[in-house]
Known about the structure:
Elements: E1 4-8, H1 11-21, E2 25-29, E3 35-36, E4 44-45, E5 51-52, E6 55-56, H2 61-73, E7 76-79, H3 85-102, E8 107-109, H4 117-125, H5 132-159, H6 170-186, E9 191-201, E10 209-216, H7 226-236, E11 241-253, H8 261-272, H9 276-288, H10 304-318, H11 361-377, E12 382-393, E13 402-413, E14 450-462, H12 471-481, H13 489-498, E15 502-505, E16 508-511, H14 513-526, H15 532-546, H16 552-569, H17 577-587, E17 597-599, E18 602-604, H18 606-619, H19 626-637, H20 646-652, H21 656-664, H22 668-679, H23 685-699, H24 706-718, H25 726-733, H26 747-755, E19 765-767, E20 770-772, H27 774-788, H28 793-805, H29 813-820
Parallel strand pairs: 1-2, 1-7, 7-8
Antiparallel strand pairs: 3-6, 4-5, 9-10, 9-14, 10-13, 11-12, 11-14, 12-13, 15-16, 17-18, 19-20
Amino acid sequence: MGKKLVVVESPAKAKTIGKILGAKYVVKSSVGHIRDLPERTLGVDISRGFAPKYVLSKGKAKVVADLKKAAKAAEAVYLAPDPDREGEAIAWHLQETLAEAAKGKPFYRVQYNEITARAVKTAFENPGAVDMNRVNAQQARRVLDRIVGYKVSPMLWSRVKRGLSAGRVQSVALRLVAEREREIQAFQAEEYWVLGANVCRQSPPKDPFLVRLSKVDGEKPSVGSESAAKALLAELEGCMLTVKAVRTREVSRRPLPPFITSTLQQAASSVCGFSPGRTMGLAQKLYEGGLITYMRTDSVSVARDAQGAARDFIVTEYGADYYPESPNAYKSRSTAQEAHEAIRPTDVTCTPESLKDTLDAPVLKLYELIWKRFVASQMMAAKIAQKSVDLQPAKTGLAHAYTFAASASEVLFDGFLKVMALNIHKKKEEDEDEEIEEVDRLPPLAMGDPIEVLRWLHDRKETKPPARYSEASLIRALEADGVGRPSTYAAIIETLNAREYTTHEKRQLAPTELGLMVNDLLVAKLDALFNVGFTAEMEAELDHIEEGNIEWTQMMGTFYHRFAEWMENAKEPPADITKVYNVLALLKKVTAWIPEVQQGKRKYSDERFVASICEQIEKKEKSVTDKQATALAKIALRYPQQIPDVEAALVALGFGELVESNKAMASDEAAAARFDALRSIELSASQLVFVESVRDQAVNGRKLSERQVAALDRIILQNASQFADFEAVRTKLGLVQEENTSEPDNESPLLLEMLQQVKVWQDPVTRGDRTFNDEEFFKSLAQCYMRQQALSPRQRHALTRLVLRYKAQIFDFPEYAEKLGLNTKKQK
């Protein structure tokens, strides 16, 4: 009798499960999806009910051949990928692909939320079948995303630039980021003044505390100028305060629920500084190592045996007072899959302290976050005493009634705070002054107590624009709007960054100029498609498919009917054909065309482009667009010697702005002077590629745009230290060097000096499409410093991390660390 074949999607997971199941099972990995839609075609037959045309994923032929061989020899096949839509789809694709090789042998679907001996063995004792509703929900998402991306992206290629992509959910996330940026740009700051005083009791204890002006004549104060602030304080000068009211109330602060995917990503970003992608990668390691439950979940429910284990641990470690009379219950969102659990440790007695010598620092940091959140979620609420006091001036005859306020919180019983620190201060109500903050503590106070004013205070403030999204707050916004699901949040943000639609500035997401251009076009042309409400509606439809309430092809049909109408309305209007004919008539005078130019993988030929437009007109299959007409006019401007009075002719045809723009472009002499200067210095690889590209453009008669010239100027300025007489170069080219307000770079020389001592570098590591090579990275930054005599803060931070990684090979490391002020304890 043959062995039973078990297929999972991860080699690490296969290794762990193989140890649990023992010799009767052969456990193999599919290494993710084995089938997908083709890369270079739509891969969806819309006319045949949106039938997907699946092909083997790139590089999977050998994996599939090995799995088929194993299925042929096995007595049964157990499909054990992750318990979510993607995992169900992987299981179905495996069954479809291996069925012929298995020759009628049974297939079973096995699911578990944690990779522990108990959970895995229980799952294999109770196998089921592939859930086709869940598979169809995944198919619907994949087909939806493919159709939107495949049909919409070409619009970006023709109107912005080639190689760009639009995505059903990614573009909605970009819209949130871009619209927030527009709000910030439109924001007009207004000044206001916050008033208060530093005060103390007249009798001991006389510890000073801060009070803020909270009301004037019973209303929130509005002090809009320094003169108004000074006038108000002048009226109060010399007077004391008395206690008007003292309020004390006891409140309970309940612990937060255990993590779900989104809240884990948010907390890991805020507390640990991890990106969503890195968080999920580290969580995957913890899951596959059997330390936490499945990390892609939107449910906060906890299994009863886990609640029982938490109760026993809490009572033993902290005492019975720290466990509630009945287990804490938390409510998941209405769309949550309650079959899943929250993210929690599989064994609560496995404390972070016990794993210090087992886990790498980042993995341990994430485990500690998960462990503390779970244990705290099962503990008693904290008891907080909130004390607030109102004070009034002890002076008659004032023009207005003034009230000053202060508040403080004190922990009466720490409860879950014993495990997880949390800000206990009173949360501001929506109508409360944002400047009224709690003080650390208030002295004993009673009504009528006289209070001495040590110093009156006034502080100028400005209203603040809405903050940019961080990765954590963007995930929170997407989740609140019902856009995306646990498995997609990290990928959405990674795609925005990879496409260079967003960039990071001080741990916040800022849209790039390209991102704003893409968003503006998509919103202008396809507002209804890339709308938060519509995208959330689609997510709900996918949930209905998974629940078996609707056929996926029916949902796709309804969507496609609307989508096709939107795409038709988004088409670029045709150009004035008479104008096109007139420009082509001008171009017929050209007899000597500029040679074809190759930039990257693309070739540009004026002659071939003009011929293609003529052919397009002749075939009458589609209209010439305004963009194509403008491109013809731009070509005509390149041949002033062969087309007499070309500028006047184009102005008469309505291309006046284009003609003026062409005049504003850099002259051939200005471009040549910059290329001459750049020939004398050493450039980085990326700088060299750009310079060679625009040099080819100039050599072949195409003028450089203002942006291209500005980019060349930036490269020259960045490499100023390489010129023997940079001031002469700067004057000749008319470069304006921005005043450098940043601190001098005194760190980089020391960091580079330390890393020059490293003799043995770690092997390069490949993650997805990227390879990380410490030695090459060090060399590239060293060359960058040689050219520019400075590195950016981000580059210096990366060098610091590299130094700490190789500190064992650095002689006199403690002395270097002291000079640089390195906190080596955090980097162990």
